[in-house]
Specification:
Blueprint: H1 3-20, H2 26-40, H3 47-65, E1 81-85, E2 94-99, E3 102-108, E4 120-127, E5 130-135, H4 136-140
Parallel strand pairs: 3-5
Antiparallel strand pairs: 1-2, 1-4, 2-3, 4-5
Helix pairs in contact: 1-2, 2-3
């Protein structure tokens, strides 16, 4: 098998993989880099130089692509909102609360405080899918 044909097949496989395993266009940029190396392979016969060129082109393309990926911003609440505990929330551990009609995992913001079942709490933040809550008594003081 000739090297240009090898790089064409690699590029095609990587671009097709992007269709089935979406990776935010990383695989497709690797595939496009392989297509460019397939063209260069017509003149450069050293496989190690071709691999080096493919790696450099891939890194450059991915670095340029990162400019178009939106940055994740942390979730913040404007004001504390009410929720009700469904299970006991032990100090430093998670329990469950009823918030906006759904059951959510929750942890008390104060690691020394335990919150009883069916108690009114206020959601003051979020880490991933876990809500950070404070008991009603903590905000009234």
């Amino acid at each position: 098998m000739s090297l240009p044909l090898f790089w064409l097949i690699v590029g095609l496989v990587l671009c097709l993989m992007e269709l089935f395993l979406p990776t935010a266009f990383v695989e497709s940029t690797l595939g496009i880099s392989a297509f460019v190396v397939a063209l260069v392979a017509l003149w450069v016969t050293s496989f190690s130089l071709q691999v080096l060129l493919w790696m450099v082109l891939s890194l450059v393309c991915i670095a340029l692509l990162r400019r178009f990926v939106p940055r994740r911003t942390p979730y913040t609440l404007a004001q504390p909102t009410e929720a009700r505990t469904l299970t006991l929330i032990p100090p430093g551990k998670t329990g469950r609360v009823l918030y906006d009609g759904n059951s959510w995992p929750a942890r008390c913001e104060d690691n020394q405080c335990a919150i009883a079942v069916d108690e009114l709490v206020f959601v003051v933040g979020r880490q991933g899918n876990t809500l950070l809550v404070l008991p009603d008594t903590a905000l009234r003081d």
